[in-house]
Specification:
- 51% of the residues lie in helices and 10% in strands.
- The chain is built from 11 helices and 6 strands.
- The longest helix is centred in the C-terminal third of the chain and has 18 residues.
Amino acid sequence: MKHTELMAEHVAPADIERTSFSIIARELAERGKTLDPVLAPVIMRVIHTTADFEYADTLVFSDHVIERISQALRDGADIVTDTNMALAGINKTVLSRYGGSARCFMADPDVAQAAAQNGTTRAAASMRKAAALSRPVVFAVGNAPTALLELYALMQEGFRPEAVIGVPVGFVNVVAAKELIMTAGAPYIVNTGRKGGSTVAAAICNAVLYAMDAAHV
């Protein structure tokens, strides 16, 4: 059996991301896909994170949601996510420049206790805890559809988050939870269908933060 010699392209570390985005832009053009310039940073960063071009078609944005999230973060809103993986991926240095923090309550003892007492998931209980914060919140849900379902229930009770990034991944209640959150009345970014994940949730948050920084350069 012959071995095929593969030659890796040499790219300087500082140029890897820039080169990746150039490749994404070229391949989108080859596919005949033109992105709204306001939404493009989010869509392209999600593609960069996943190497999956389907996100160019499945990410759905409510009207003016990027502007709404950006303004909320400029005003010091926190980002609350449903996994520590997403929490780790969010650029907290950039977020802190605007006065906000990234939070995840999934491992908190009171969240575990509330979930056990109420017969819910910890993801649902963590959303209810976040809704009680005395500051504005942008939610970034990348794993648990029950978190979106709890946010929907909270909004039926009158709670109004600054925005919901709803991109959980999976097979059970994922599609239904995403569809419900798009009817709840809050600004949203949702990936329709089964795909998503914590890395996607973090990528969306970072895309908005980096665009905010770029606007001030």
